[in-house]
Amino acid sequence: MIEYIQNQSKSIKNIMSVSIVVFIAILHFIRPPDIATFDSLIQIDKLIHFLIFFLSSCWFLMIYGDKHKIILISSLVFYGLFLELMQMEFFIFRSFEWFDWLADSIGVIVGFFTISKWI
Length: 119
Known about the structure:
The chain is an all-alpha fold. It has a domain at 39-119. Helix content is 77%, strand content 0%. It is built from five helices and no strands. Helix 2 packs antiparallel against helix 3 (39-64). The longest helix is centred in the middle third of the chain and has 26 residues, at 39-64. The termini are close together.
């Protein structure tokens, strides 16, 4: 699978990368579903944040390789912070949460360490 992705043309990789970034933004900006708030749902929210950024960090490391690791990690961590700040400033039904950003950041770091062993 990793070889298949790495062997794709640069334009396909770039289109997929932009699509992933836009998809993550859309997920951060849509109105959350109206469901009763339980502690378990809050934990699921953090798990979803972790998984989104875990998978995106795996993707970007497969595409851009190990030589840009620090730039990619920093960019994704700050992208997560940027999305949280955008929620606070521009979306009434969304709010900034430090733990969401922490889950994003941990997902990025774990993703890079995980995929680094495979490539």
